[in-house]
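Example 244, ligand NJP.
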Amino acid sequence: SEQVVVITGASSGIGLATAEAAAEQKAKLVLAARSEAALKDIVARITAAGGEAVAVTCDVSDRAQVEAVAAAAVQRFGRIDTWVNNAGIGIYGRLDEVSEEDHRRVFDVNYFGLVNGSLAALPHLKKGGALINVGSEVSESAFPLLGSYVASKHAVKGFTDSLRIEVEDVDRAPVSITLIQPTAVDTPFPEHAGNYLPNEPKLPDPKIDPRQVAEAILDAAQNPTRDKRVGTMAKVSTTLATLF
Ligand code: NJP
């Protein structure tokens, strides 16, 4: 396809894998994250391989910065076909020890970042397009020592499912809205997370390859489904000893 695809959190992990896979499919890419240098390297790599990509430095928790990403996409490529809200962070720690500031930060990025992206993208998608929101297996289940993260991903699912009804069923706009729900994915997510625990946080095995999630995201851009689960969906063990 020659889709114009916007990806938030494109500097690492799932977002980066999605950018690379989309570039192979000849998509025109708008890559957003806070790390300007990392994005520039990725854009240089994609461009050197014959692809088209532009980097936009952006903190998704700031609505104006997210609107600037949409504006950059339209300015460079004339339209937006697919918008992927992928940026996210974690905070490891008990709910009674995570500071209010950290708890709010998780919601500012994971929830309000995705709200900002969805609302910035929708006006551009209404003639036909795909909005793809990265939730999680924990959008529907509990998980200890990542409680603020789990709560934010539940909020992501509630927002995404409600928005879908308004856009598809009330407006009858040809926008597909998909929630991607991966299991644990092999990315630097734990290293990027805040941590109140005495030891290095990690995610439980089995961890899937981020390219598997990228494939599900790009597939949803072409063949939308309401919820796309990726991974084994084995019941997450709540035995703390297996996690940390
Ligand atoms: O994590 P990581 P993943 N504004 O840390 C960016 C979900 N998920 O790929 O800003 C803008 O490698 C950050 O870039 P930078 C997860 O919840 C994961 O695993 O430059 N961007 C980086 O590009 C999240 O929603 C697993 O630091 C911001 C990216 O986000 C998504 O998958 C399982 C930002 C994070 O890359 C990608 O996570 C699951 C901000 N304020 C769902 N803050 C899993 N890994 O197991 C961060 O079910 N970023």
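Summary: Residues 100 and 152 are 14 Å apart (CA to CA).
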